[in-house]
Please model this.
Amino acid sequence: MWQNLAVNAAVLVAVVYAFWYLMPGALRRRLAAIRPGLGKAPSCSSACSDCGGCGPKPGSPAQAAATPITLTRR
Model:
């Protein structure tokens, strides 16, 4: 019985987190009107690169090394 409660609690936390992360911005702004702490956007933890924090910085060696490769047929 305790195992079922623990698993159900873990699943509930995962569902709430997924809902919060995938929530539309309009709904998040409505929640911000009720409670300001809820209006914050989720942190940049995905590979979306919207904030620029995940990718290489401009002028970094990682960006300079990324050059296109051209293949020619003989």
Q: What stands out?
A: The CA atoms of residues 16 and 29 lie 18 Å apart. The mean pLDDT is 75. The two ends are 69 Å apart (CA to CA). Residues 1-43 form one domain.
